[in-house]
Amino acid sequence: MLDDFFIRALLAGIGIALVTGPIGCFIIWRRLSFFGDTLSHSALLGVTMAVFFNINISLSVFVISSLIAIMLLRLQKTTKLPGDALLGLLAHSSLAVGLVVIGFLSSIRFDVMGLLFGDILAVNQNDLLLIWIGGALILLVLKLIWKPLFAATVNYELAEAEGMKPDKYNTIFTILLAAIIAISIKIVGLLLITGMLIMPAAMARNISNNPIQMVKLSIFGGLLSVLIGLFSSLKFNSASGPSIITAALLLFCLTLIKFKKVSELKK
Amino acid sequence: MNKEKKVLLKIEDVGLLKNDKWLVKGVSLEVKQGEIVTLIGPNGSGKSTTAKIALGIYKEVEGKVKKFTNKIGYVPQKISVDWTLPIRVIDFMSLTDEPTNEQINIALSLTGVEHLRDKSLGNLSGGEFQRVLIARAIAKQPELLVLDEPVQGVDFKGEVVLYELIKKISEELNCGILLISHDLHVVMSATDFVVCLNGHVCCSGTPQVVAKNNKYQELFGDRASSILSLYEHKHDHTHSQDGTIKRKQ
Questions:
Q1: Are residues B1 and B64 in the same domain?
Q2: What are B93-110's pLDDT values in tens digits?
Q3: What is the DSSP string of B156-193?
Q4: Do residues B86 and B113 share a domain?
Q5: CB-nearest partner of B84 from A29, A147, A162
Q6: Inter-chain CB proximity B76 and A158 less than 8 Å
Q7: What pLDDT was estimated at residue B6?
Q8: What phi-psi label fits residue A189: left (phi over 0), alpha (psi between -120 and 50 degrees) or beta?
Q9: Is the ipTM of this complex over 0.85?
């Protein structure tokens, strides 16, 4: 039952859940869910560029997503458009440009469904290496910048006034976000990455009262979603990426019920 | 004045242009160790703006801003913390620094909120939150404190206690304080140097000098200058133990 491909899928899923847990918390705290969406849309452009120039997909996605993210930070400071409008603008223009470029690549076909929803069961050794090394790097950087980033998340002005350099750390965080999207695009697909990022963190928010606890629970929730999702996809022969997200949804609903009971007890 | 006091903050001729309007222009001031400098002025006169320029929150400004310390505690006038963040008072206390447990407890008890230590920040009342903000700023033992209307929303009794605390902190930690306050009583009695703002520095000096300035009287009315005479009066006699008044020579 437990074939090689399934072990690899498990390892990949676990690796990704370990990283999306803490990053997802920051996405929720900083209200960046839509930002994650924009970056993953821009990943389509990244993938087509990779095919076009025949370079590594993850690298290309990382570069394009980082560029889009930095462009967004610039635009936010220089235009009078609200943040959500800018996000929509960038998301759809990168999506459109990506699709146009695909049109020119008629000679090459690639698995569009796999791109949109990911294919965790097709993970190979190189992918695993990328996930675990890339993921470890992301976590390491996040740990190093935790304090100033958290301060900037709580209050920009306090962080700036007390010398925590929030602009610098906001930019680094944005690049981390592009990196996690780059390493997980093949596994969960560009439509579901944001789900993988925010759902474990959202369920953790329901049952935690301090930041560290929320990060731990978020990692735990992500791991549980991966395990439940993958095993049920094996059992029911359902698509694995969407199964993981569905498992996360169920867990989220569970935390809602528990949360209600706790708050009733308090009354 | 003691010349050995270290200058902590110096701004020279700063101005901020926003949407073709000068929010402040030509403001200079200096905060030294162990000194309380107060900014006063009507609403919209640029007090908070000046503080934010001094702190480096506004970066594209005219003039020179020099900070000579990195240990800064800031109590902003308005703070919006996003309550999607699960954060307790204790987490908030070490937001920008690593104060020891003892320092945190002392700071919280000084501002009278030690019982809120493990409460969620989102559940505090306005006044409680204000006290926590002050506690956070002093727990890190700053060299420079910037307090923007620090006692807003605090009850009357607490207000007096907190202002006394601020005075005490400036002596004990020997830190410089830049204070923004509408409470002219406090400003005139507890401050070393007053800067009266109205888009520009309209007058500045020791409280005694400022209170006698015509521009200050125009800005705040006659009653404002009588506040000082109240304090000066306070010091022209002492009471002996049976309550009789002893005049000073």
A1: yes
A2: 999 999 999 999 999 998
A3: HHHHHHHHHHHHHHHHHT--EEEEE-S-HHHHHHH-SE
A4: yes
A5: A29
A6: yes
A7: 87
A8: left
A9: no
CB under 8 Å to A133, separation ≥6 — which residues?
A: none
Q: State whether B49 and B116 are in the same domain.
A: no
pTM of the entire structure? 0.86
Least confident of A111-125, A208-222, B61-75, B150-164: A111-125
Check: CB of residue A177 under 8 Å from CB of residue A39. yes
Which residues, other chains included, contact B229 with Cβ-Cβ below 8 Å and sequence gap of 6+? none
* Contact predicate A192/A245, CB 8 Å: yes
The 10 Å Cβ neighbour count of residue A173 is 23
- How does DSSP classify residue A237? -
Å from A59 to nearest chain B CA? Answer: 32
By C-alpha distance, the chain B residue nearest A151 is: B95
Q: Which residues of A touch B72 (CB under 8 A)?
A: 161-163
Q: Which two structure tokens, joined as six digits, stand for B123? A: 């559940």
Tokens of B15: 């101005």
Most confident of A37-41, A132-136, A179-183, B30-34: A132-136
Q: What's the Cα-to-Cα distance from A244 to each of A14, A24, A37, A43, B29, rounded to whole Å?
A: 11, 16, 18, 21, 60
Return the domain boundaries, chain A.
4-192
From CA A47, how far away is CA A126, in angstroms rounded?
A: 17
Q: Which domain holds residue B125?
A: 81-141
Query: Which amino acid is residue A137, in one-letter code?
Result: L
B194 and B106 together in one domain: no
> Are B44 and B150 in a shared domain?
yes
Q: Which of B71, B90, B96 best tests the A interface by mutation, with the highest count of A CBs <10 A?
A: B96
Beta-sheet strands, E only, within A70-144 = none
pLDDT value at residue A267: 43
pLDDT for B177 equals 93
Are B209 and B89 found together in one domain?
no
Cβ-in-10-Å burial (0-12, 13-18, 19+) of B90 comes to: middle
Q: Are residues B128 and B217 in the same domain?
A: no
Q: What is the CATH number of domain A4-192?
A: 1.10.3470.10
Instruction: Pick A210's closest partner by Cβ from B82, B88, B97.
Output: B88
Our count of domains for chain B comes to 2
Interface test with B, best of A210, A214, A215, A259 (most B CBs within 10 A): A210
Are the Cβ atoms of B79 and A205 closer than 8 angstroms? no
Q: For a pLDDT cut of 90, what percent of chain A falls above it? A: 47
* Cross-strand partners of B160: none
Residue with the larger pLDDT of the pair A65 and A187: A65
pLDDT band for B249, please (50, 70, 90 cuts). Answer: very low
Shared-domain flag, residues B55 and B29 = yes
| Tokens matching residue A188 | 């969960």
